[in-house]
């Protein structure tokens, strides 16, 4: 069925050359970023080629940099034990699942990984999709529809927002971490929708702060709403043994309906998961478009995530080192007079410097002095709150952190 746009929205193709991509408003907006970088007189910080494993250090054009641009939080990407398991999986199963898992793509390592994730978090079951971003898009897009309401934190990741749009549900954002406002939205809408879901993240990737999960769980107890938590940055990094924000707040895993996470960060792989009750996971397994109509995660990626979970389960030593490094970095940054914003108890530490140009130039200066860190600026963060975003790793040495603070102080 062809749906025609109303006349007011029809574009006159002759007045607007659709093949002149530089004339698209969105392309013009994107070109402004390039213009800003040029104005700052800096090297393009994007798509730099990292020639080896990116851990606490990375090699770019043959030079070593102290690295804060990768979320290899526990240093497990590059760990021999993990690499051996990934290589073994290739030897046994090949390099591709060669089909949707529903058809002929299912390998023993897939089920093993899902069981391991479920056990680690404490849920009945889990489902692994081939990408973290696509997990949010397809699961949110699939689970909710135009009869539903999605209430989400206004600092939510793009993948959450895209999933909300795809679903066709009504969406209302609440101010970051504002549970009172969230409750008010629930109260106002409680009888108007078939399903209401609150979507939050464990750790927020721009500010490095945590969601007050305990308060959201209280809302879920008080009202008939679902709770969806994206643990992309909190699994493996937060909580005494790295089990995430649930462990941090002492919350039983059953008190959240959807535990979402990615394998690309602490778990040194690539892919995404949803963990929860068996009935939910089984339904998703047979019906979620991004799972059913897509090839599964590769055997090597599944094996890398299994091996990473093995390392984390065996000892919380890396998790503890990561948390110690983060506290040390925040403390040293504050002592040197830097604004680390609301970051706490997550491995993401922003150094907020103000305007976009300042952040871009500062990141460039750091790079020239051997520190790789990316600037974040409007529209990724509010105007006037441009920052450098540091991803801390368990593998950073105290010397790495000291050098970085010294170079920052010299360059500001
Ligand atoms: N959710 C959040 C909160 C994220 O920060 C990211 C990626 N940075 C994703 C989902 C997507 O995960 P992936 O990069 O593994 O696709």
TrEMBL record:
Residues 64-406 form the Aminotransferase class I/classII large domain. Keywords: Transferase. The keyword Oxidoreductase does not apply. CDD domains: KBL_like (cd06454). It holds the Pfam family Aminotran_1_2. Its cofactor is pyridoxal 5'-phosphate. The keyword Transmembrane helix does not apply. This is Aminotransferase class I/classII large domain-containing protein. It comes from Thalassotalea insulae.
